[in-house]
Amino acid sequence: MPTFAYSGRRRGGETVRGERIADTIEAAVQGLRRDQVLVTQIQPVKAKAAPAAKVKTGKRVSAKNLAVFTRQFSVMIDAGLPLVQCLEILGNQEEDKGFAAVILQTRADVEGGASLADAMKKYPKTFDPLFTNMIAAGEAGGILDTILKRLASYIEKAVKLKGQVKSAMAYPIAVISMAGVVVAGILWKVIPTFASLFAGLGAELPWPTRMVIAASNLMVQFAPFIIVGFIGLSFLFRQYYATHNGQRAVDRMILRAPVIGLIMRKIAVARFCRTLSTLISSGVPILDGLEITAKTAGNSIIEDAVMSTRKSIERGETISAPLKETSVFPPMVSQMIAVGEATGALDTMLSKIADFYEEEVDAAVAGLVSLLEPLMIGLLGAIVGGIVIAMYLPIFDLIKKLA
Fold it and tell me: Rounded distance, CA 83 to CA 70, Å?
């Protein structure tokens, strides 16, 4: 793009001179006006040496880092700092080098005359469609600071909700993994010693002992094949889940699973309502909002239901009726959405539904953890205790014979 040399004045009367990269003189003047510079003279100059290669698609950033960036950005904009200066400060202080490069490149694009939303859309891995569409709505409405605050609150709540999902799954996975390691260690090292002892004594083995020894022999002889088979099954599962039908089959099973399925459904409803409420209150059109919400649902069954609702709205229907027909969302959700549509406060109603279901998720996760803790400990104790008893049964029989 061409470079333009300019001179002008700031609001305080300070004279400034410099160069600005833009497509046209009008774009350069518009960009300088956003930086609170009144241009008095501007003319094209020879292009400088080509800059370093730009970041093409950006990189994925953790939700926590993005939330901190958005919150700081909103505070700076609210304080009246120029947009370019905000991005420069945030980019220079960001510890994540990849994220810092994206922020600074966004700053360069904005300084070159692009809107903030258009500059961010170049890096879809960093700024998703929800983020960029809300920024575009904020720029169009002149409420960028308000939109950034809503975005920061949304991302922070999304991080909390994701943490609740991890809490619900981490404990049983950790206990089951620990149980698997303990049992494998016993079968691999301990049981063969007992089997050699029993063979030397010529003891008659009861059926529980024979089963444990058989499992131990199986593990010792076929351990490499078991490991390879487990890795192969994991790979095949990923490949199957990557397909359209496979993803829907697995996601449907998750939603129908006892206890966990109910929690995952509540999480999906809370995420749907929170996302759509944030988009609508920010001025994003309802059809665009539903499309973005469907992509962030986190479950393909929920995504299909939302997209089906979007098609119904295109035909002139309300939101509540097609949502009710999908049978994915609880009746209370469609009823409250219908009230929100009737009163003209859909975004507020969606926010209240999200608050309700987030509290429900809190209670459900706490209840699940308290229920699983004794069950998992009991299961681990039963497995290890069963193996120990099975191996001591022949010894008890020998002691009785000697007595």
Answer: 13
Residues counted in the chain: 403
**What 8-state DSSP symbol labels residue 44?**
E
- Rounded to whole angstroms, the Cα distance separating 340 from 400 reads 77
**Residues 73, 37 contacting (CB under 8 angstroms):** no
Query: Mean pLDDT per 10-residue run, the chain (403 residues)?
Result: 74 74 77 75 61 53 85 86 87 88 90 86 86 82 81 82 72 77 82 80 77 84 83 91 88 83 83 84 82 80 86 82 80 87 86 87 78 78 83 76 61
pLDDT score of 283: 80
Cβ-proximal residues to 39 (8 Å cutoff; 6+ apart), any chain = 6, 7, 8, 29, 32, 33
389 vs 234: CA distance, rounded Å: 33
Tell me yes or no: is domain 158-403 CATH 1.20.81.30.
Answer: yes
pLDDT recorded at residue 52:
41
Which residue type is seen at 383? I
Report whether 144 contacts 138 (CB < 8 A).
Answer: yes
Is the pTM here over 0.70, yes or no?
A: no
Looking at the DSSP bridge assignments, the partners of residue 7 are: 17, 41
**Apex 176 CA angle, 170 and 181, nearest 5:** 120
**317: CB partners within 8 A, 6+ apart:** none
Amino acid at 67: A
Per CATH, which fold does 63-156 belong to?
Receptor-associated Protein (1.20.81)
Whether the CB-CB separation of 271 and 296 falls below 8 Å is answered with yes
Put residue 59 in one of left, alpha, beta given phi > 0 → left and psi -120 to 50 → alpha: beta
Structure token digits, residue 108? 């360069």
Two structure tokens written together for 250: 């697995």
